[in-house]
Amino acid sequence: MYTISEISRLTQTTAHTIRYYEKEGLLFPTRTASGIRRYDETQLTWLRFVLRLRATHMPIDQIREYVELFLASSDKHDTTRDRLRLLEAHQQNVRDQLAELMQTEQLITEKIATYRKHHPSVAEETLRPI
Amino acid sequence: MYTISEISRLTQTTAHTIRYYEKEGLLFPTRTASGIRRYDETQLTWLRFVLRLRATHMPIDQIREYVELFLASSDKHDTTRDRLRLLEAHQQNVRDQLAELMQTEQLITEKIATYRKHHPSVAEETLRPI
DNA sequence: GCTTGACTTAGAGTAAACTCTAACTTGTAG
DNA sequence: CTACAAGTTAGAGTTTACTCTAAGTCAAGC
């Protein structure tokens, strides 16, 4: 069981942010009798996944929605389908971002090549066409 | 020569945002005698490049810095090197984002596969380890 | 018991990038 | 000439995701 500072160090995330994620309904650490947060391996793994989703720009609201579906799931009300739908939507989002990044990487590489060729005073675009 | 609404339509960007970019020093349209903005092909191409940089999360401040270097360039003070440095820094940034996205895409794909296999009531993680 | 560093809370503050409003001016079609 | 759509401005407001502060409580070593 980890304290917040250990989790903070292990995930390279400030304790402030970790508490903020809890307030936003993304994390549920247990507490000691005196109210101090305790995190186990499961929570650590989950936080790492959340950080991955955030790094790929999944909004906190959507992550919370995913968590809520998870917590709401039961025998008579299974939320698997909805969670799958959320994951698939984000997967598409990630793929769109990949496409945009690859195109832009290509464009920047070309621009860099032009800069290196025409070394002094590059033409490229006349931003202010006066 | 395009009006702001034409540019807006051509780039799928609101006129508000286009004016905001101008205020932030990223665009320099010419003006009619009465003060109405006019954009030529060069400005359109430049805006499209700016939108690419934004879509790959280059901060507006850095784009402005790039523009300022471009405008400041002259025979006695060539800024090519600095612009190249900025582009290379962003290129690295884009590559880092690509790496993160590819890893996360992989992870999500695995998770989706697990969901599809264990269809009802997926185990994955027990978020609230009570 | 005392100090010291880590923990707690509610709530305020910040940064970035838009996004909108209000009041006004300009351009165009009838 | 008139209507009205589209343009203009300064500046206020919004959203998202943190980030920090203040005032206090808890835990461990001496």
Question: What pattern of helices and strands is seen along the backbone of chain A?
Answer: HHEEHHH
Radius of gyration of chain A, in angstroms, nearest whole number: 22 Å
Count up the domains of chain A: 2
Main beta-sheet annotation of chain A: 2 strands, antiparallel
* Largest interface: chains, residues each: A-B, 54 and 53 residues
User: What structural class should be given to the helix and strand makeup of chain A?
Assistant: mainly alpha
Which shape of chain A, going by the Cα principal axes? flat
Report helical residue fraction of chain A. Answer: 55-70%
User: What gap, in angstroms, lies between the N and C termini of chain A?
Assistant: 66 Å
Question: What's the number of helices of chain A?
Answer: 5
Based on the structure, what is the oligomeric state of the protein chains? homodimer
Q: Beta-sheet strand percentage of chain A?
A: under 5%
Low-confidence stretches of chain A: none
Strand order of the largest sheet of chain A: 1-2
* Average pLDDT reading of chain A: 91
